[in-house]
Amino acid sequence: MDSAASRPAVVIDNGTGYTKMGFAGNVEPCFIVPTVVAVNESFQNQSRSSSKSSNWLAQHSAGVMADLDFYIGDDAHARSRSSSIYNLTYPIKHGQVENWDAMERFWQHCIFNYLRCDPEDHYFLLTESPLTAPESREYTGEIMFETFNVPGLYIAVQPVLALAAGYTTSKCEMTGVVVDVGDGATHVVPVADGYVIGSSIKSIPISGKDVTLYIQQLMRERGEHVPPEDSFEVARKVKETYCYTCSDIVKEFNKHDKEPAKYIKQWKGVKPKTGAPYTCDIGYERFLGPEVFFNPEIYSSDFTSPLPVVIDKCIQSAPIDTRRALYKNIVLSGGSTMFKDFHRRLQRDLKKIVDARVLASDARLGGELKAQPVEVNVVSHPIQKFAVWFGGSVLGSTPEFFEACHTKAEYEEYGASICRTNPVFKGMY
After folding, report:
1. If DSSP codes are grouped into helix, strand and coil, which group holds residue 177?
2. Distance between CA atoms of residues 341 and 51, nearest Å
3. In a domain, 136, yes or no
C-alpha cells in the first residue's frame, strides 16, 4: 500500500456554474466556488509593446508574473469588478471544458490555494458530464499527470455519482433516473444496476443559467434599475434566494396581485462604479424563473418540451423490464433542482402523464385486462445540491477506489489513452 493511498482522495466536481471540492470521506465539500477565472490582461499587452526596447529578462519576469496573477471563484468576480485589467473567463460551457488553459489555472488554485494539499500525495477523483468526448478525458489526464504529477486519477460520470450518493441515505438502489439540472446543462440519465443506459440519455438545452437569464430579462423589461454590468449577478442571487416552483401559474399571478406586500421582495444592492445603493422589486420572476422547466415556451421558442415529458420519454426508451424501477426512483441532482417544491411539481406532472397512458391502454383493451398502476416517485434529499460531489466522496472512501484508479506508472507506460475508460473494476473494458 503506497502512502498516497493511505491519505484521503481529493474529490473535485467541476460544474459549469460552481465547482465543489473537498476530501473523500467528508459529508460536504470544503469549498463551493463559481467556476470562473480572472486573468490579468495588462501583462500580455505590456510584453508585446515593449518587445523592441526592453531586455528579454524583464519580459520573461513579466510573463512569469502574468502566469501567477489570476484569481478564481468569488475572488475573480470581486477583482474584475474593482479593476478593469482583469478579464473573466468561464472555462466550462454547457458541461464541457472549452478553455483548457483557464481550466489548468483553475485547478492550480483549487489544489494549492483552497485545498492546500500537495497533489503528489493524493489520489484524485474528477467528474465529467455524461456526454463528454473521450479526448477531453485525455486532456484532463495529461494535465493531472504532467502538470500536477498526481499518483492516481479516476474520472467519474456525474449522474452515476449522484445515484451513489443515495448509498448512505437509503437502501442501495443503483437503478434509477438521475435528473441532473446544473448551471450549464440538464441531463436525464437512466441507470440500471449501476450501468448507464447510454442510448436513452436525454439532454435539454434549458438549465440553471437560462433561469438566471430569464429573470434578468424579466427585470430588465419591467424597468428595474439594476446597473447593467451587475444585472446577471443580481439575477443569479435573486434566483438562489427567492425563487420557488408553483403548482399553477394563473393562481400564482392572482396571489401576487391580491397581496403584493406579502409576495413582492426587495433587492438591495450597491452600484459597483459609484458605490451608491439601489433597490429594486422582485415580483413574478420568483415563480416564473423555475417555470421554464415546465413550460419552456415562455422563455424560448427553440425548445418546447417540458422536463416531465422528457423524463417520461427517456424512461419509455429504456429497456422495458427496467421501466417500473426507473419510475420508482427518479433522483434529483444539481443546484437548479433546489427550488422549493420542485420535486413535488415534477412528480405531479409525471404522474399525470403516466396515469393518462395507463388509462388509455385500459380503454384500448376494453377492460379485459387491468394494468397495474405505475408508481412514480421523485426522490428529493437535502444534499441534492452537491449530490455528485457527495457520491464522489462516498466512492473515494471505499478501498476498491484506489484499485480502480489509473496510476502515474500506467500513464507513463501507456500514455493518456488510458484515461479514456474509467471502469468500476479493473479488467472490465
Report:
1. strand
2. 60
3. yes
